Every structure is written in structure tokens, then in C-alpha cells.
Q: What sequence folds into this?
């Protein structure tokens, strides 16, 4: 666990310029806006199009954030790639820059791999990075990666690397699995993050650390507020309000919908660009998104 | 299509040294052994652990093959990565080195992407590489990539880039799909390769170009012979003999089994190493493999 990486983090969406290159200025601005709303920076996650970026592009963006004065203590970059050597290069750089943790996908091209193979993979990364400051949050997102972080695998990794294996993001969408992680591992200082704010209250009530959620890109203040005040009597009502906003985004392809919202509410069309294989929302989808958000009182003040 | 990339190619297995780094000398030696048996070099495929290699590692290996005097006219490196920029970098280098074609996976992290998004992805690569020598073989392997190259997508790509879209490797394992590709696209000079020698004879009888097969790493001469003599009266018997060998390997995890065979028949234990997340065969699996191969008359002369 880390003391600076609790509560709510966002897999920060990555802006691209007209040539599809990462847009550093917009990226820094959005990261700052999130931090000001008490949301940490899980850059290069699934919803960041992190796997549509080359390792060198991710390193350049991370260096730009740190150079802009943003605190690496609030950063948990995604560093898990298909190739062991890429994961090591990116993780090493993240640690050297002072990032408080990294969110690490298992290698995800080969399917049906064994826990032995995944254990070996994480072990090799830990040993090759060889830095006591390394804190790894395991990234369990079977609907996308198709490679699972099982409970027995966590058990083995925690036993072998208790200081380094710091937690998990559970994006299985299966609260029974999150509960099992909370019960077995959270008491040992292994921080369990829900993969969506839908499960934020349940995760916090179960002793967990918070959530790492796509929609924290657009609804950061309200999500972070629930994380701070979850023991108050209005917590269930606040959870319901978060769910209403999330439901609107979830009806559309998530990444282009997040970017369309930032473009719209921030009056900055450049934000709508996605890298292939993703495609932007159609005009009809965009109109539907904004119409559906209106009754929820959704806004993005200060954007 | 290419005139030098027909018949049988192998996704050449990648040897690693004790530090899990690619072993250039063993790699060149195995590539040469395959070429001498009339098998082309589809390096960095699925069975090459291609996606466990960083782009820089793949470029270094490709440069080493060319520097060793191996003919790029017989090379079809896998260059499709998750990130557009990685695919462009690697493809550009392959073309510059004179490779007759590249085998290109779709970006495979994001699932459920649209044909529009995949079309945009291939289009961007073609335009950014910007070289008339580029020949792309689309790589359809849904069991692993989980992202399909559909018939309508091929239709659109062929219409837009008739000189560049050169063919497909169909590793769906669905001969009905291969047949559909053969009927619709092969007559237009789009070369259809089966993803396994199990379908070699059927593919050639359907007018196809050949196969790109994992087991061509270990049984190259016999597979290449059927590709040359498929119109002879003993073709079905030859196909059955190939199938018998393939069936033995297919009962085990394919990549470690191929490497175990090369290590055993080539008397070179160093070959057995795989990169995580794969794991080597157990001693029991190895013994089972060699015992099952014996009645097939399997051998690897000249290794």
C-alpha cells in the first residue's frame, strides 16, 4: 500500500493532436484539473488508451507531468505491457521519476497462460527493476486483458514480495471477487481498488482503498467526495447520484464518450480525437450523451 | 501477393539466452536451417513469442538476419502491435530492410472494436509508412488476438489499398472461413495462407498460397514438400503424415513443445528457454512428447 495513493484515481484520458500524437499541454492541464479535485493520476490505463501508446510515448508524457510540477506521489502509471522488456523499461522509469506506484497488467497477448507463468512474469519485472521503492498494483481486468489475476496468484506474489505487491485494481465487475480480495488481502496492507465508482461505497465499507475509475475523468469532485465522506448518513444517496452519471457514459463506447464530454464541457474540440482502433462518437451519439446527462445535473466546472 | 512469399512459412521460434535476451546466433542458425528446407521466415509471429519482444528487440533481430546474409525476399515479419506508433516504426524498418511482406495483427488490446476502427488503423499505418514496397498480410487469429479480420474489412482494405493489401493468414481454425477468403479474394491476387499445415492441402486445392505454421519450425521439409507436390497422387497420404506429427505437438503447449523438440533433436538445451508468461515443458511432458513422436518417424536432420 501507499499512503498517497488512496481514495479515487483516474485512468487519465490521453489527448491527441491532429496528427494523433499525444498532446502534452492538454494532458498536463487535465491532470492538474483532476488533482485539484482530489483525484490521483492512474495515467496509461485502459481508458487512457494506454495500450495504444508506445513505451517511449508513455515515458515522454510521464516526464512532462513531473517537469510540469505535478506530484509523482499521486501517480500510478500503467506499466504492464506484452513484452517483459517493455514492462521493465517503463516501470523502471516510473520508479526513477518517483511515482508512488504502478498499475501492472499481466502480459496479455498469450491466452490461457498459467499462474506459474504470470508469477514468473511479475517476479522477473520486480527483480530486473531492482528498486525497493517499487510498489505494484496488480491490474485484474479480464473482460479486456482476457488474462486473470487469480486469488492464488495474489497469495503467491504477496508471500514472495510483501513489500512490493501493494494492491489491486479489480475491474472484473464481479463484486464477489472484490469482496474475496478485501477479505483475504486488504487486512495485510494490500490495497483493493474497485474498477468503477459503482462499487466505491461497497469497497470502502469492506475496508478497501477506493476506486480507479474511467468516469473520474469527468465526474472527479463528486466521486472523490464520496470517498472522503463515505461514513456519512447520505452516502447511499451520493452513491446513487454517481451511478446515475456513470450509467449515461456506460451506454456508449466509454473512451470516446469521456473525450466527447471533455471537449464539450471544456469547449475544446481537440479533445475528441481518439487513436485507432477506437473511433469518435457520432454526432447522434454525442447529442444523446449530452441530453442524457442534463437531468443528472452533470457539469464539469473549472474545466 | 508476393512471388517470393508462397508455399510454407514458419513463425520462427525465438531463442533466449539464460538472461532471457534474444539469442542472435541460435536465431540465425535456425532461420538458415528453415530456408534450406524451403520454408520462409514469418519471424515475430504468435509462435515466435513475437509479442513478448519489444519493438527494439525485433528490429535488432531482423537487422541481424539481414546482416547474416539471409534473404529479406523470404521474410514476412510480424509487425502488428497494440500501439499505432509501434506498428509504424517496426513496419517501416521491415520495409527498409527489404522484407517482401509483413504479417500484421490488428491492434489487440481493445476488444469489440469496429471494422471502421480497424480500417482506420491499417490505413494510418499504410499512409505513415508511405512506401510503395509495403505488402501487408492481414493476420486473423481470433482465438488469441480476440480481434477479428472480417470479410467486409478485407473487402474495404483491398478496395482502398489494392497494391498493398497482399494477403491473409487465417488462423481461425475454421476452414469455412478460409474457403470464403479463397473464393472471394484469392482470384484478385490476395494470397490466402492457412494458419496450420492441417489445412495446407485444402487451401492449395482451393487456389491458396500455402500455410504459415508453427510446426514448420520442426517439420519443415515434409510440409514444404507437400506444398510443392500437392497435385501428386500421394498428396492425401502426405497430408495425413503431416497431421500425425502436428497432432502430437498440439496436445501440448505449442511454443514450449517446439522449443523442447529443437533442444532435444538439436542437442542444445539452451533452446528450451521461453519468456514469461510462458513456461517450459515439464520433464514428464517432454518425455511424453518424444515418446509420441517416435512412431511417426519424426526427425530433424541437419539441425
A:
Amino acid at each position: 500500500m501507499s499512503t498517497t495513493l488512496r481514495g479515487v484515481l483516474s485512468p487519465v484520458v490521453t489527448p491527441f493532436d491532429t496528427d494523433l500524437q499525444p498532446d502534452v499541454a492538454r494532458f498536463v492541464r487535465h491532470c492538474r484539473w483532476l488533482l485539484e479535485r482530489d483525484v490521483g493520476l492512474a495515467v496509461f490505463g485502459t481508458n487512457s488508451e494506454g495500450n495504444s501508446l508506445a513505451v517511449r510515448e508513455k515515458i515522454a508524457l510521464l516526464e512532462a507531468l513531473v517537469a510540469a510540477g505535478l506530484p509523482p506521489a499521486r501517480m500510478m502509471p500503467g506499466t504492464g505491457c506484452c513484452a517483459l522488456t517493455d514492462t521493465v523499461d517503463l516501470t523502471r522509469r516510473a520508479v526513477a521519476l518517483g511515482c508512488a506506484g504502478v498499475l501492472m497488467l499481466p502480459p496479455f497477448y498469450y491466452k490461457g497462460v498459467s499462474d506459474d507463468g504470470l508469477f514468473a512474469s511479475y517476479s522477473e519485472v520486480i527483480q530486473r527493476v531492482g528498486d525497493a521503492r517499487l510498489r505494484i498494483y496488480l491490474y485484474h481486468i479480464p473482460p479486456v486483458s482476457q488474462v486473470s489475476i487469480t486469488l492464488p496468484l495474489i497469495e503467491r506474489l504477496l508471500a514472495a514480495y510483501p513489500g512490493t505487491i501493494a494492491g489491486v485494481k479489480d475491474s472484473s465487475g464481479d463484486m464477489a471477487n472484490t469482496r474475496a480480495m478485501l477479505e483475504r488481502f486488504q487486512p495485510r496492507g494490500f490495497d483493493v481498488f474497485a474498477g468503477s465508482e459503482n462499487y466505491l461505497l461497497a469497497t470502502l465499507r469492506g475496508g478497501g482503498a477506493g476506486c480507479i475509475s474511467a468516469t473520474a475523468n469527468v465526474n472527479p469532485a463528486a466521486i472523490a467526495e464520496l470517498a472522503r465522506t463515505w461514513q456519512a448518513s447520505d452516502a447511499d444517496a451520493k452513491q446513487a447520484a454517481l451511478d446515475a452519471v456513470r450509467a449515461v457514459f456506460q451506454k456508449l463506447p466509454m473512451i470516446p464518450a469521456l473525450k466527447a464530454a471533455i471537449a464539450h464541457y471544456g469547449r475544446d474540440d481537440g479533445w475528441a480525437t481518439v487513436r485507432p482502433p477506437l473511433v469518435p462518437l457520432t454526432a447522434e451519439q454525442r447529442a444523446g450523451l449530452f441530453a442524457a446527462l442534463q437531468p443528472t445535473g452533470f457539469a464539469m466546472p473549472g474545466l
In short: The CA atoms of residues 151 and 181 of chain B lie 7 Å apart. Strands of chain B lie at 7-10, 39-41, 102-104, 136-140, 165-170, 191-194, 210-212.
